[in-house]
Amino acid sequence: MTKRTYRTAAIGASLLATVAIAAPTAIGQSDSIPADHTIDVLVLYTGAAEESEGGEEEIHEAIDSGLEGMSKALDRSDIEGKVDLAHAEKIDFEETDDQGDAMTWARERDEVADLREEHEADLVSVVVSGTAGIAQSPIPDETTSDSAFSVVGSDWLRSDDETGEAGVFAHELGHNLGASHDWDTDPGRNEERPYNKGHITENGLVDIMAYNNASSCEPDCERVPYYSNPDIEVEGEKFGADDGDRPSNLKKLFDETIPVVAAYR
């Protein structure tokens, strides 16, 4: 069983596990997603990331796999939206031990801003070698297009339907869309959209945004490649919460924020 560590600048690190699931039966809607629900991503990758994947062709394949994994997760979660590659390019950036340095570099470089405009990219993600990731996490509106950056580790780019792994893009770009973690891991409440949370089921399944070692997991939960949605069931369990003190409904959130982010550029 694979364990992965996702982190954001605000939360810190955690381990997550995946669970094998059947291949999705309803994948395919992404081909008909309208432009106002299509998010275009500029992906920049370091030489170290390219080397770790085995070369230029391999890093591009991994990027494509990761973006496809997120689009499939949106699809199987009954969320109208997809992510497309606007452009991928190798950058001259010397990696450090802090992924935040790569994010700062990307945010401050004029050439990155120029590439974003040239390719009309809504989001910008930097791929570095290694694992984990960080992302900015606004509640998107017409003023947040500058909060559109993430950094992801190349080791976790690829999605895998057989193991239920959606890939690190699905988690970190989820933050760019306004998603938080689960209530146990991140109890802070967004009063405007308190439902912007990942979900943990009673039987110990977690969605893409939740942490598998949250306090309600005994000892670890298992992740499935869905976003929280109380209108669907996963392995026989309702996969979200509409009401109460701890709502979790990323379908509702993404229905609101995907069109906003898709209009950044």
Automatic annotation (TrEMBL):
It comes from the Bacteria. This is Uncharacterized protein. It comes from Candidatus Corynebacterium avicola. Pfam families: Reprolysin_5 (PF13688). InterPro entries: MetalloPept_cat_dom_sf (IPR024079). Residues 178-198 are annotated as: Disordered. Keywords: Signal. One of its GO terms (molecular function) is metallopeptidase activity. The keyword Oxidoreductase does not apply. Residues 181-195 have a biased composition (Basic and acidic residues). Residues 1-22 form the signal peptide. The keyword Signal applies.
